[in-house]
Amino acid sequence: MYKQIELNYNFNALEPYIDELTMNTHYSKHHAAYTNNLNGAVDKLPHLRDLSIEDLLKDLTIISDEDIRNSIRNNGGGYYNHNLYFASMKPGGSNRPVGALAKQLDKDFGSYDNFKDKLSTAAANRFGSGWAWLSANENGDLQISSSPNQDNPIIESHGEWTPILGIDVWEHAYYLKYKNLRGDYIKNFFEVINWDIVEANYANVKSR
């Protein structure tokens, strides 16, 4: 069974950047629904139960039933994406990355500020609902991309790229507080990023 990540902070802990009502609704309703729906879909194909969520998403062609495949793509993506999203935040954030990730950001994007601008632009320009990503491969390279709906780089690259940080730009992630001002939400998201977790994600991808 796939389990929803347990938060190590309260729903109001990210204020004023992300409000308590949004966090509660996002985690308790949206994320919970993706998790429950994913488990319901996988229950129809018991041979998939032992797969990690990454292995499940990187090759959806193994699922011959189109309805189940689409359900696992949508709900499995939602489950994975939200686990990453909620884990990547903390009260007060941690300023900016250091160590190996900081060096790679400088190498691939020129500077942290350039990276921040590029990721923010990817999030702002994602039409409709979706995500913006910072992803890594096993060589330690980094890339910025965006995905529609609940897709992610694992699905799109068949596991070649793994997200280490994601910005949720579905309206449910920000609309209660920011209304149509997605850009303000994106700007303030950087105030609550837990770079220690992002750096750990980066190290895990490189160690495969």
Describe how the helices and strands are arranged.
Blueprint: H1 20-42, H2 53-58, H3 66-87, H4 99-109, H5 112-125, E1 130-136, E2 142-148, H6 153-157, E3 162-168, H7 175-178, H8 182-189, H9 195-206
Antiparallel strand pairs: 1-2, 1-3
Describe the structure.
The chain has 208 residues and is mostly helical. It is 50% helix and 10% strand. It is built from 9 helices and 3 strands. The protein has helices spanning 20-42, 53-58, 66-87, 99-109, 112-125, 153-157, 175-178, 182-189, 195-206; strands at residues 130-136, 142-148, 162-168. It has a 3-stranded antiparallel β-sheet. α4 crosses α5 (112-125). The longest helix is centred in the first third of the chain and has 23 residues, at 20-42. It is globular. The mean pLDDT is 97.
Total domain units: 2
The CATH homologous superfamily of the largest domain is termed Iron/manganese superoxide dismutase, C-terminal domain
Largest sheet: 3 strands, antiparallel
Question: What is the 3D form?
Answer: globular
Number of helices: 9
What's the CATH first level of the largest domain?
Answer: Alpha Beta
| Element-level helix/strand string | HHHHHEEHEHHH
Number of strands: 3
Q: Segments where pLDDT lies below 50 for 5+ residues?
A: none
What fraction of the residues are assigned to beta strands by DSSP?
Answer: 5-15%
CATH architecture of the largest domain: 3-Layer(bab) Sandwich
CATH topology of the largest domain: minor pseudopilin epsh fold
Order of the strands making up the biggest sheet: 2-1-3
- First and last CA, distance: 24 Å
What level of helicity do the residues show? 40-55%
Radius of gyration: 17 Å
Rounded average pLDDT:
97
Q: Tell me which oligomeric state these chains represent.
A: single chain
Which structural category fits the helices and strands? mainly alpha
